[in-house]
Amino acid sequence: MLTKRIIPCLDIKDGRTVKGINFISLRDAGDPVELAAAYAAQGADELVFLDITATTEDRKTFAKLVKEIAQHVNIPFTVGGGISSVADVGPLLEAGADKVSINSAAVRQPQLIDELAKAFGTQCIVLAVDARKVNNSWMVHTHGGSRPTEHKLFSWAREGQNRGAGEILFTSMDHDGTKSGFAIDPLQKLNELLTIPVIASGGAGNAMHFAEAFMLGKCDAALAASVFHFGEIKIPELKTYLRAANIPIR
Prior knowledge:
Layout: E1 5-13, E2 16-21, E3 24-30, H1 32-42, E4 47-51, H2 63-70, E5 77-80, H3 86-94, E6 99-102, H4 104-108, H5 111-120, E7 125-134, E8 137-142, E9 147-152, H6 153-163, E10 167-172, H7 184-193, E11 198-201, H8 207-215, E12 221-224, H9 226-229, H10 235-244
Parallel strand pairs: 1-4, 1-12, 4-5, 5-6, 6-7, 7-10, 10-11, 11-12
Antiparallel strand pairs: 1-2, 2-3, 7-8, 8-9
């Protein structure tokens, strides 16, 4: 069995790490470079860096900050925010990112997934999907969760896989920042539908929630932000807990 991954997420706004609840009410969580270095030292398996206002502000992710973060970590690193073309990706990979995450632009122009996978390989492409439950259906939202779409979570994730995405990063907007646990039911269904790895995001509040994402949700990785940023969960202690639960951890 492949080992499960623990992934801190750094949401970046105006050069600072921020965190909110249900995608709003953002508060400062610290310097992204310092946090990235600390997480690498603590044993995080990967990092995700999302420039959360790049799309809504119609600008590109800051390659300079990506380069600075990459100089301080020795673990795989995914970058997202404002990526809308093949030309956007090369500078980010050159700056030190291992993978890129696409979301709003992929919904707007699905062929972008095909183009990026062809240009850089499926292993570089993470399709981020933000969704919330609307009338009993999980509906995809874009632009930092501010714009509802007609896409349904499961069909969109499957299309993303078919077009060449190497991973799906699913964030439950209903669970985001609530610390009430990951959205297990849709995670289970995603893992039944797909053959590519699924990353759980939104709702982590304690170590047991991570265990549930892996054991019940069948996820390959679990991502969290505030519980790591504010010291509520320490990565070494989390890994000790998961190993004791017989979950394969690096």
